[in-house]
Fold:
Amino acid sequence: MSFPWAKEYKPTHPFMQWMDEKLPVPRLVYNAVGSGYPVPRNLNYFWNFGFLALICLTIQIVTGIIMAMHYAANTAVAFDTIEMTVRDVNWGWLMRYAHANGASAFFVVIYVHIFRGFYYGSYKAPREMVWLLGVVIFLLMMATGFLGYVLPWGQMSFWGAKVITGLFSAIPLVGEPLQQWLLGGFAPDNAALNRFFSLHYLLPFVIVGVVVLHIWALHIPGSSNPTGVEVKTESDTVPFYPYFVAKDGWAVGVFAILFSIMLFYFPNALGHPDNYIPANPMSTPAHIVPEWYFWPFYAILRAFTQDFFFIPAKLMGVMAMFGAILVWFFLPWLDKSPVRSGNYRPLYRKFFWFGLIPAMLVLFYCGGAPAAEPYVMISQIAALYYFAHFLIIIPVVSAIEKPLPLPYSISESVLGHDEGAQLRPAHGATEANLA
Amino acid sequence: MARILSILVGLFFTVALAWSFGKGAYQEITEPAAVTAEHEFHLPPKEVHFASDGAFGKFDKQQLQRGFQVYKEVCSACHSLSHVAFRDLAQLGYSEAQVKAIAAGFQVPGTDPNTGEANSRPGMPTDYFPKPFANDIAARAANNNAIPPDLSLMTKARHEGPAYVYSLLTGYQAQPAELLKQFPDAKTPNGLHYNPYFANLNLAMPPPLTSEGQVQYGPGNPKPTVDQMAKDVSAFLIWTAEPKLEKRKQTGFAVTLFLLFATILGYMSYRNIWHDKKH
Structure:
């Protein structure tokens, strides 16, 4: 892909010319993240989170490989090997805390990245495939995060594994055999720990593969931007290098400072104290909670407390929990509004800021709270809004909303005028000025 | 078509949630959940400060040595410390000879070199602290059916761990009359001990620190009051749970300072590169 004005890679050094003929990796890099990739000039800081996510993935893989060198996936010693790593391996404490907090940082970044997509309509044509692959990455991340949390074999590891794999038993007929097959037994034990470790090591590399596809799919139409108006001319863009390398670079600095403060001064703030108690199948913790990044979906799971006609409450909860993420796959076809950016969608914007964001924050809070009143009732209201937002409000709003007038081009929105503008629509957004 | 389907699916979930909400709310109104004694009388940990708190916190080695003494003379009768080796005690400021002497004061499981039979031998610096009970059954039998937990990670295994340990050790008291008036069934059972800082209020562990001078501190140390001993052993358990705490905070300071510098440079180069581009 590219825009016609994208710079072409022209190696001058004979070795680079030779390399370009045999294996054009430098050309690939040049076109992907170099001067050969024109990017809308008006991207705001929310567009840095894709790059930050890539940094997080790298941190996780590097620290994870080192952790795996000292870890043994055996229920008898798993807990002790991690303590040994922290106490006796050089910089082992740093690797352990970086890996545990790195997972949290990754999810913070990815939640901002996803909600950026919601607000600016990044999921809309022609970027549906970018969005679909992104949801796949999120699902893979959740699986990897869950599997990783089991590995230290603390109390929350064990009971979390028991609760989450127990969800499969809600499936009619095949549920229980399926759960036993997944665990390799009747409860989480050595067989489960071993396969969880194996998969926890595998999935990050699957994520890397899907990330490559995600970026590839992005480079076909090029990046979206805060106005949602597509790139028209060269003046709408700047080359990725040096402009966005510099911008991403300093954003990484800010991220790294916040991450270091978390990692060095509050390394256990996001973990649960019970996971410093070795797993004990005979003693159930007072409150079983997953890691914080699962809380909204855990709250949705627990919000279904009553059987609905012939469907048991547990099955409803499981369907809703998975449905809450699967609905994102359909978003490009549920939101038919021709305008992408929330900046030009007055009604959609209200539902985003005063509906979706508060509902999500409430679900976050309730998912970590005990399964008691009033938290259950509050999470029921928030979950109700969540499903209404994606399945009812978005389709209806996109049909009835009158969007604000769009700028003619990115250049116009940035500079206040655009020399190239010739056929200006009189007023309001039309399909034509989005093409 | 897609929208109609979507709205139907949306209605399915929202109606199911409204149904759950309605029935739950009705239940809350008609039969509100009973208040429990734990809910009414459980207390959050007391406020207490340690030298290792804060961004520049460092261990008070003298205090850690006192805390170790309390562990050795009181806690170790029932509680193991399985992640800590005698060699680690060098970090508390003990010399090599002192560590050797401390280790030799403990009997650890060994093997008779002539017969191969299990026996015990004096500890060496490379050994870990021995467990006070042979197994969980023995531990239960000796402790009113409760297993004394390992203490190595205790201050990280409870919310506000160090303050929790301190509060628990100093929090034993007679059961309040008001509690018995309100919850006549919640009388502390025989063999358990009332402590409002424990999650379910009744604890199998009898008060371990009962009188001033129970542990004799050497000259130059504060008076061994119950409060002081509880504080010292809590500080010691902060160290056993996180021996790398000092190094972590020092490294963090250097790393954050470096990143701050690098980020300022990064910001300046960003401004420089973009200076003629409106965006």
User: Anything to note?
Assistant: The two ends of chain A are 17 Å apart (CA to CA). Chain A touches chain B through 66 residues (CB under 8 Å). Residues 37-418+427-434 of chain A form a domain with the Cytochrome Bc1 Complex; Chain C fold (CATH 1.20.810.10).
